[in-house]
Amino acid sequence: MFLRVWATTLVLASFWLTSPLITSVLANQALPTSQSRNSKLISVTKAEFGVERVGARGNVTFIPTTRVPLQEKRRYGWRIQLKDYKGEITWREVLRLPKQPENWGTDNGENFSLSANGTEGVTTRTQKAENGVIENFWTIAPGDPSGKHKIEVYIENRRIAAFEFEVVKVKQ
Protein backbone atom coordinates (compact mmCIF):
# COMPACT_ATOMS: atom_id res chain seq x y z
CA MET A 1 0.00 0.00 0.00
CA PHE A 2 2.80 2.40 0.91
CA LEU A 3 4.44 1.75 -2.47
CA ARG A 4 1.23 2.66 -4.37
CA VAL A 5 0.81 5.93 -2.44
CA TRP A 6 4.47 6.79 -3.06
CA ALA A 7 4.13 6.06 -6.82
CA THR A 8 0.96 8.15 -7.07
CA THR A 9 2.64 11.03 -5.24
CA LEU A 10 5.63 10.82 -7.57
CA VAL A 11 3.42 10.88 -10.70
CA LEU A 12 1.38 13.84 -9.45
CA ALA A 13 4.48 15.78 -8.38
CA SER A 14 6.17 15.26 -11.74
CA PHE A 15 3.00 16.39 -13.53
CA TRP A 16 2.78 19.57 -11.46
CA LEU A 17 6.44 20.34 -12.02
CA THR A 18 6.32 19.78 -15.79
CA SER A 19 2.88 21.22 -16.53
CA PRO A 20 4.21 24.83 -16.95
CA LEU A 21 6.78 23.48 -19.42
CA ILE A 22 4.16 21.50 -21.34
CA THR A 23 1.82 24.49 -21.37
CA SER A 24 4.50 26.80 -22.75
CA VAL A 25 5.50 24.32 -25.46
CA LEU A 26 1.87 23.84 -26.49
CA ALA A 27 1.23 27.57 -26.45
CA ASN A 28 4.13 28.14 -28.83
CA GLN A 29 2.77 25.54 -31.24
CA ALA A 30 -0.95 26.00 -30.83
CA LEU A 31 -1.66 28.60 -33.51
CA PRO A 32 -0.07 28.56 -36.93
CA THR A 33 1.12 31.85 -38.37
CA SER A 34 -1.40 33.94 -40.28
CA GLN A 35 0.44 33.13 -43.50
CA SER A 36 -0.13 29.41 -42.84
CA ARG A 37 -3.79 29.99 -42.08
CA ASN A 38 -4.18 32.08 -45.25
CA SER A 39 -2.48 29.52 -47.47
CA LYS A 40 -5.00 26.86 -46.44
CA LEU A 41 -7.78 29.20 -47.48
CA ILE A 42 -6.22 30.01 -50.85
CA SER A 43 -7.99 28.40 -53.76
CA VAL A 44 -7.27 28.61 -57.46
CA THR A 45 -10.07 29.58 -59.82
CA LYS A 46 -7.97 29.43 -63.00
CA ALA A 47 -4.45 28.33 -63.88
CA GLU A 48 -3.09 28.62 -67.39
CA PHE A 49 0.18 28.27 -69.24
CA GLY A 50 1.05 29.88 -72.54
CA VAL A 51 3.16 32.21 -74.63
CA GLU A 52 3.06 35.95 -75.06
CA ARG A 53 2.55 37.45 -78.49
CA VAL A 54 3.57 41.06 -79.01
CA GLY A 55 1.51 42.91 -81.61
CA ALA A 56 2.67 45.56 -84.07
CA ARG A 57 1.68 48.33 -81.64
CA GLY A 58 3.45 46.67 -78.71
CA ASN A 59 0.30 45.25 -77.14
CA VAL A 60 0.88 41.88 -75.44
CA THR A 61 -1.56 38.99 -75.78
CA PHE A 62 -1.43 35.80 -73.71
CA ILE A 63 -1.99 32.69 -75.87
CA PRO A 64 -2.75 29.49 -73.90
CA THR A 65 -0.75 26.55 -75.31
CA THR A 66 1.42 23.59 -74.33
CA ARG A 67 3.85 24.09 -77.24
CA VAL A 68 6.46 26.84 -77.07
CA PRO A 69 8.45 27.70 -80.22
CA LEU A 70 12.21 27.57 -79.63
CA GLN A 71 12.68 31.14 -80.84
CA GLU A 72 15.05 33.57 -79.18
CA LYS A 73 13.22 36.20 -77.08
CA ARG A 74 9.91 34.24 -77.13
CA ARG A 75 8.28 34.57 -73.70
CA TYR A 76 6.37 31.76 -72.03
CA GLY A 77 4.93 31.30 -68.59
CA TRP A 78 1.94 30.93 -66.35
CA ARG A 79 -0.69 32.96 -64.64
CA ILE A 80 -2.93 31.85 -61.81
CA GLN A 81 -6.16 33.44 -60.60
CA LEU A 82 -6.60 33.12 -56.83
CA LYS A 83 -10.14 33.19 -55.51
CA ASP A 84 -10.94 36.31 -53.47
CA TYR A 85 -7.28 37.05 -52.73
CA LYS A 86 -5.90 40.55 -52.21
CA GLY A 87 -2.48 41.74 -51.15
CA GLU A 88 0.99 40.27 -51.33
CA ILE A 89 1.71 36.58 -51.57
CA THR A 90 4.90 34.54 -51.71
CA TRP A 91 5.05 31.72 -54.24
CA ARG A 92 7.73 29.26 -55.31
CA GLU A 93 8.17 27.99 -58.86
CA VAL A 94 10.14 24.89 -59.86
CA LEU A 95 11.10 24.77 -63.56
CA ARG A 96 12.44 21.41 -64.81
CA LEU A 97 14.19 21.20 -68.18
CA PRO A 98 15.00 18.04 -70.17
CA LYS A 99 18.70 18.94 -70.10
CA GLN A 100 20.93 21.72 -68.82
CA PRO A 101 20.78 24.96 -70.86
CA GLU A 102 23.91 26.87 -71.81
CA ASN A 103 22.95 29.63 -69.35
CA TRP A 104 20.36 30.34 -66.67
CA GLY A 105 19.34 33.93 -66.22
CA THR A 106 16.81 35.73 -64.06
CA ASP A 107 15.72 39.31 -63.54
CA ASN A 108 16.77 39.19 -59.89
CA GLY A 109 19.15 36.39 -58.92
CA GLU A 110 18.62 36.72 -55.17
CA ASN A 111 15.40 34.66 -55.38
CA PHE A 112 16.75 31.94 -57.65
CA SER A 113 18.63 28.68 -57.08
CA LEU A 114 19.81 25.82 -59.30
CA SER A 115 19.91 22.07 -58.82
CA ALA A 116 23.33 20.37 -58.82
CA ASN A 117 22.83 19.00 -62.35
CA GLY A 118 21.64 22.37 -63.70
CA THR A 119 18.31 21.12 -65.06
CA GLU A 120 16.07 22.55 -62.33
CA GLY A 121 15.65 26.18 -61.33
CA VAL A 122 13.71 27.34 -58.29
CA THR A 123 12.37 30.88 -58.14
CA THR A 124 10.78 32.36 -55.02
CA ARG A 125 9.02 35.67 -55.28
CA THR A 126 6.71 37.85 -53.25
CA GLN A 127 4.36 39.88 -55.38
CA LYS A 128 1.13 41.78 -55.09
CA ALA A 129 -1.70 39.71 -56.51
CA GLU A 130 -3.26 42.30 -58.83
CA ASN A 131 -6.95 41.37 -59.07
CA GLY A 132 -5.97 38.05 -57.44
CA VAL A 133 -3.57 37.11 -60.28
CA ILE A 134 0.01 35.92 -59.86
CA GLU A 135 2.26 35.14 -62.81
CA ASN A 136 5.79 34.45 -64.00
CA PHE A 137 7.36 34.37 -67.45
CA TRP A 138 10.62 33.10 -68.95
CA THR A 139 12.33 34.21 -72.16
CA ILE A 140 13.89 31.77 -74.64
CA ALA A 141 17.64 32.41 -74.85
CA PRO A 142 20.39 30.94 -77.06
CA GLY A 143 21.30 27.47 -75.81
CA ASP A 144 17.92 26.68 -74.27
CA PRO A 145 16.97 23.04 -74.80
CA SER A 146 14.01 21.78 -76.76
CA GLY A 147 11.89 18.97 -75.34
CA LYS A 148 9.48 18.38 -72.49
CA HIS A 149 9.51 20.87 -69.63
CA LYS A 150 7.54 21.11 -66.39
CA ILE A 151 6.67 23.96 -64.06
CA GLU A 152 5.19 23.48 -60.59
CA VAL A 153 3.94 26.41 -58.52
CA TYR A 154 3.69 26.29 -54.72
CA ILE A 155 2.31 28.52 -52.02
CA GLU A 156 3.85 27.54 -48.70
CA ASN A 157 4.52 23.84 -49.37
CA ARG A 158 1.26 23.17 -51.19
CA ARG A 159 1.36 22.73 -54.94
CA ILE A 160 -1.33 24.92 -56.46
CA ALA A 161 -0.59 24.31 -60.15
CA ALA A 162 1.53 22.19 -62.51
CA PHE A 163 2.16 22.76 -66.19
CA GLU A 164 3.72 20.31 -68.64
CA PHE A 165 4.74 21.77 -71.97
CA GLU A 166 7.11 21.17 -74.84
CA VAL A 167 9.62 23.58 -76.33
CA VAL A 168 9.73 22.74 -80.03
CA LYS A 169 12.26 23.60 -82.71
CA VAL A 170 10.87 25.92 -85.37
CA LYS A 171 11.16 24.85 -89.03
CA GLN A 172 13.11 27.39 -91.01
List keywords for this structure.
single chain, 172 residues, alpha+beta, six-stranded mixed β-sheet, 2 helices, disordered N terminus
What features would you describe in this structure?
The protein has 172 residues and is of the alpha+beta class. Helix content is 22%, strand content 44%. The protein has two helices and ten strands; from the N terminus they run ααββββββββββ. It has helices at 2-30, 34-41; strands spanning 44-54, 60-64, 67-69, 75-82, 88-96, 112-114, 120-128, 133-139, 147-155, 158-168. The strands form two sheets. Strands 3-10-9-5-7-6 form a six-stranded mixed sheet, with no helix packed on it. A four-stranded antiparallel sheet has the order 2-1-4-8, with no helix packed on it. The longest helix is centred in the N-terminal third of the chain and has 29 residues, at 2-30. It is globular. Residues 1-39 have low confidence and may be disordered. This is Proteinase inhibitor I42 chagasin domain-containing protein. It comes from Plectonema radiosum NIES-515.
**C-alpha Rg, in Å?**
25 Å
Overall average residue pLDDT: 80
Report the strand count: 10
Task: Give the overall form.
Answer: globular
Biggest β-sheet: strands ordered side by side in the sheet: 3-10-9-5-7-6
Question: How much helix, percentage-wise, in residues?
Answer: 10-25%
Protein name: Proteinase inhibitor I42 chagasin domain-containing protein
Organism: Plectonema radiosum NIES-515
